[in-house]
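As promised in the previous annual report, we have extended the structural survey to additional targets. Below is the entry for 3-deoxy-7-phosphoheptulonate synthase.
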Amino acid sequence: MIIVLKPNCPEEQVKKFTDSLTQEYNVKVNTWVGTQSTVLGLLGDTTSIDIDYIAAQDFVESVKRVQEPYKKANRKFHPDNTVITLPTGQKIGDGNLALIAGPCSVETEAQICEVAERVKASGATFLRGGAFKPRTSPYSFQGLQAEGLELLKKAKAKTGLPIVTEIMSIGHIPLFEEEGVDIIQVGARNMQNFELLKALGKINKPILLKRGLSNTIEELLMSAEYIMAGGNDQVILCERGIRTYETYTRNTLDISAVPILKKLSHLPVVVDPSHASGIAWLVEPLAMAAVAAGADGLIIEVHNNPAKALSDGAQSLTPDQFDRVAHHVLRTKDALSKLNA
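The corresponding structure token record, generated without further manual editing, is:
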């Protein structure tokens, strides 16, 4: 249930009202104070609450029940966009286009540092790189793991770019915190690893949550809800393509998911055109489409020598190719911002 209070409602009155709701109906009340109004989100069994009685209070503007099973991720509970701000100052969801770039797998210190320096020069504000790699085949390269995190730290020290890397196990959380990972990525295969999501809900670190290969938009939002229910509101949603009947591309980018997620949720939305297509030359047009659809950021695979990459070379851009793509998408974002101003 959502209760919107009239503007300028005294803080004392809000507290008295929320306390009475908590005590009388045994519900949890989330209070969101916006620029125009105060919104109360009631979590729990609200069936016994008399809507007419609530609406009759002279300080209540409107009240309605929420049918969606996700509450904390729901825009109705939080009308303004959530902006993820890192201690280093980088932001996702503030109206600008965040560029997250780097190799699928960290391979050597020279490789990750070279790529980090090149993508930063092209406009990237975050460095992605896989240390722990979930692979379909047990015989494929599984990543450098803890050593990979150390190499990412070295690249961060050289460039100042915050680290975005994927976690695969609850047991890795202390290591990720110790090594200073800035944004923890939950991959598509772990989107419904609910024990992992609950554990990530207990830490104070942004989580980039990728949509599963065959999951619905509501299922993605429910996975975000698991993290947020634990107390961590710093969730970034990622559309990375879903599995369909089409075999030409690795996956099918669901571009409609971007405006739908922006309508249903207040959380930032980024798009991964690399995994969506699996084809390097398709990354640019899909990235442009994502920007036009309203994405808050892009996560793109970049390798200094894709032909010899230990994983996902076919979809990786060279630094020169990324430079061109970054230039085009940033200009497109700027043009769209002026058009909508």
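The domain at 2-64 is CATH 3.30.70.1140 (Alpha-Beta Plaits). The first strand starts at residue 2 and ends at 5. These points will be discussed at the next consortium meeting with the crystallography subgroup.
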